[in-house]
Design goal:
The chain is α+β, with helices and mostly antiparallel strands and 92 residues long. It is built from 2 helices and 6 strands; from the N terminus they run ααββββββ. A 6-stranded antiparallel sheet has the order 1-2-6-5-4-3, with no helix packed on it. β1 and β2 form a beta hairpin. It is elongated and about 40 Å long.
């Protein structure tokens, strides 16, 4: 119900959906940078994997030679050789 209400508000006032619906925004530059906004926490980080908690699930990034270039509040800048980005639903 809350999600339907927020979608209606988003459309009515032309607001960015990633903010009102708590969705992550992922901006990629080729396969070497990923800027991920609006996450809810870092779960796993290694040189080959990044797992972030997001609203209703997780974002998983796989690749090689990962380096966290920036991590501020709800934003992360990941650098490396990105091979795969997936969204996983929360099982709860």
């Amino acid at each position: 119900m809350k999600e339907k209400f927020m979608r209606a508000i988003t459309r009515t006032f032309d607001l960015p959906s990633e903010v009102t619906l708590e969705l992550p925004r992922i901006t990629m530059i080729g396969s070497i940078h990923a800027y991920i906004e609006n996450h809810q926490g870092l779960v796993v980080f290694s040189s080959q994997e990044l797992l972030l908690k997001v609203h209703q699930g997780f974002v998983r990034v796989k690749g090689e030679a990962f380096v966290l270039k920036m991590m501020i509040d709800k934003d992360i800048l990941l650098e490396g050789k990105i091979q795969d980005v997936t969204f996983e639903k929360d099982k709860a």
